[in-house]
Amino acid sequence: MSFISKFIPPFIKVEKNIKTAFIKFNNFLKNNFYLTSSKASRMTGIVSTVVLTVFIVIFNGSFVNQDYSKKWFLLSVATFSPIIIGLVMAFKINIKSEKLRKFFFVVLFLLMPIITMTMSECLNSIWVYDMTYLGFLANYTVILLLYFFVFAISGSLKISILSITPVIYGFALAHSYISAFRGTPFIPMDFLSITTAINVGNTYDYTPTDIIILATLMFILIMTIGVKVSTPKFKLLTRLISRIFTGVFFSVVIFTFYFTPIFTNAGIQPDFWNQSRGYRNYGFVYNFICNTKYLYMSVPNGYNSNDVGNYVSKEVEKEKPSSDEKKPNIICIMNESLSDLKVLGDFKTNKDYMPFIRSLKKNTVKGNLYVPVIGAGTSNTEFEFLTGHSTSFLPPGSNAYMLYIKNPIASMTSTLISQGYSSMAFHPYYESGWNRVSVYKFMGFDSFKSLEDLIDISIMDDYMNNSSDPDYLQYLINKNYPSQKKMLIRQYISDSYNYKVLIDDFENRDKSKPFFCFNVTMQNHGGYTTTASNFSPNIKITSTKNEYVKTTNYLSLIKKSDLAFKELINYFKKVDEPTVICMFGDHQPSIETKFISEVIGVDDLSKLTIEQDQNRHVTPFIIWANYDIKEKNIDKLSVNYLSSYVLDIAGVKLTKYNKYLINLSKTIPVIDTVGYIDKDNNYYKWSESSKYTELLQDYEKIQYNNIFDYENNNANTFFVNGYSVEKLADIVAQIEEKEALQNETTEETK
SS3 of 654, please? Predict the structure, then answer.
């Protein structure tokens, strides 16, 4: 008893202190706070609670089907959130004391960026407590600055919340979907490819995921708080000082960030080597804003248009000019998402998915092609191939077709048309994608055949507007084109049909000219979970721990591409005219990251070595001829060199720039957005200097002259046979005049 009696008094004292503290806190709440509501607000709260609860019940599988340990906890949070949101909608907390009201206003102002950041990072698949300290601080600062900007203009926290939050939510939601679809983050330049995104957007699954549901609930809660919050009545001087302070602070930071190197020197910039890693380590809002700084293309240091010819000449003067020029037909095919995933690491399948391509040896040059993008961004690979330029020297995340091709530009096309070739571009999807209509004109293509030329486009409009089921599109094709029932695989033009169209164009060409065609296929485009009656997957992975639906469907598509390419080669084997065919993949597909991680042997793709990261940029290329050429296997070559190799193998006249690129490839065979690889197989990041830095700077200046310095374009470098940008401009004008005449004829016919 003595032992118990010793501890009872202190326990009773602690209990009394707790009761006293509770009473004081309760009195504090009664004296300073009170709730108000109206019939309308209570009804709004009830309806919102019911609607959101039903929504969560419908999509509970987004939580239940996950394989992580916290799924039940997060489902519980999501389930109770509608009640909290309903209460906040139904009731408003009022503060009696003016001083206390001002204090809580300041606290709320400082807390709202954290709540908003929690929402945006949820959509970035990161929980705030998992963020690095720098990432947390950076995102908090950026969001607070945005609040400051609106507050400086409006003087209202309510307006700040209600205007900034939807913008951040919208961008973060886009980032969540884009990351899921293509495996890379949402960057500012993606706005410029919105047309292409819309065209292929219905091929993806938009079912809200667990993180989207949670973030949306947070968004609704934040907006509800924003509606309820009110700004206290500060004195006029206080209001002026607060608005001037927030405005000046915002302006100083923005000016320093965009127009001085201070932030860059301090290391405050995107992770250019691996944007996905940067978004993971330092958050969505911060990285998205940081990327906007690099949209502007600055003039390279030391650039002088008069020096461009010298940079090229010192590399090509040693070569003897070729007198034996040929003019074979040249067909170049950029095959959508064509890749051999075994470059990532070994895995086994029930049968080979590209046996014909592997078997090609006679009269064939082939190898590994390093491209600038992963999962999407087709046109950047296309740009590098046709121009010989590297997107590595453009602002990270930018798109050359959308931003920079605003004038006639020297390319593979101009090199061939100056030698009497006809030129045709062909892409069996919407012509509007990637601004190709304008770009192809500026390159000098005689014609551009697209999906609009293959079928009545109203059929696609019907499909896009009324269904996302490929079987419905197949039904429409069967109905309108009964003889072309094998036109599609899933909802895209098949490679086999694509090549039939190409062969038909070849047979009906102007036979007085050698034929050049650049073809971008569509069969293997993303959306690999899509099922369709016209596509039966027949490739299975037999060596991985898990079943990967996207990957097996993708490999089954590649098998069909391999068969279609065999059909094309077999046709041209019988053609008497000398013909060179080049086919290459534009990028690796957007498939399960878990498959990629398992094959590479890492648990996190943001932790790849530079060699592993480079392997994610590898696709195959094949250059085949129906006559004798020297066989060769090239282990490493980046796509900016490939067209020069094609022209050289074909034996046509090369520009000085083509010769320059062929020589450069012997020293630095790979130059891409990850970094570069030299002839001795040394890997370099762009962030480090090397013995090749000056050589790369010369390359950058040469391509700047062709892309950006239209008035001082060095025709002697980029053209042959007396061509120039002015002459190319005349050709562009003729093409536009021809199109205008055709449009007039079409209108008159209607």
Answer: coil
Can you say whether the dihedral through the CA atoms of 433, 366, 704, 610 is positive or negative? positive
pLDDT in tens, 170-219: 999 988 888 887 677 787 767 655 665 666 566 667 888 888 999 999 99
- Tell me the backbone φ, ψ of residue 319, rounded to 5 degrees: -80, 145
Question: Whole-angstrom Cα distance, residue 657 to residue 718?
Answer: 6
Compute the Cα dihedral for 505, 506, 512, 518 and give only its sign.
positive
Residue 62 pLDDT level (bands cut at 50, 70, 90) = confident
Q: Which two tokens stand for residue 354?
A: 């590209």
| Separation between Cα atoms, residue 620 and residue 615, nearest integer Å | 12
pLDDT at 1 over 60: no
Q: How far apart are CA 396 and CA 398, in angstroms?
A: 6
Task: Say what the pTM is.
Answer: 0.75
Q: Max alpha carbon distance in the chain (Å)?
A: 116
Q: Are 622 and 584 in contact (CB under 8 A)?
A: yes
> What percent of the chain stands above pLDDT 70?
91
Average pLDDT over residues 18-35: 73
Residue 131 belongs to what H/E stretch? none
* H helix or E strand, kind and range, residue 634: strand 632-638
The per-residue DSSP string of 47-100 comes to HHHHHHHHHHHHTTHHHHT--STTHHHHHHHHHHHHHHHHHHHHEEEEES-HHH
**540: number of Cβ within 10 Å:** 13
User: Could you tell me if 211 and 75 are in contact, meaning their C-beta atoms sit under 8 angstroms apart?
Assistant: no
Q: Which helix (H) or strand (E) holds 333?
A: strand 329-335
The amino acid present at 127, given as its one-letter code, is W
Q: Which two tokens stand for residue 8?
A: 């009872």
Contact 369, 563 (CB under 8 A): no
Q: Give the three-state DSSP class for 604.
A: coil
Sequence letter at residue 529: T
Which amino acid is residue 512, in one-letter code?
S
Phi, psi of 66 (to 5 degrees): -75, 160
Most confident of 143-157, 270-284, 465-479, 574-588: 574-588
Question: Please, what is the angle between helix 210-228 and helix 157-182, to 10°?
Answer: 170
| 331: phi then psi, degrees, rounded to nearest 5 | -120, 120
Tokens of residue 746, six digits: 């079409």
d(CA 100, CA 701): 62
Average pLDDT over residues 380-406: 89
Q: What is the pLDDT of residue 14?
A: 63
Residues 427/519, Cβ–Cβ less than 8 Å: yes
- Express each pLDDT in 216-267 by its tens digit: 999 999 999 988 888 777 778 877 888 888 888 888 888 887 777 777 666 6
**Which amino acid is it at 348?**
K
| Short-list 548, 539, 173, 551, CA closest to 354 | 539
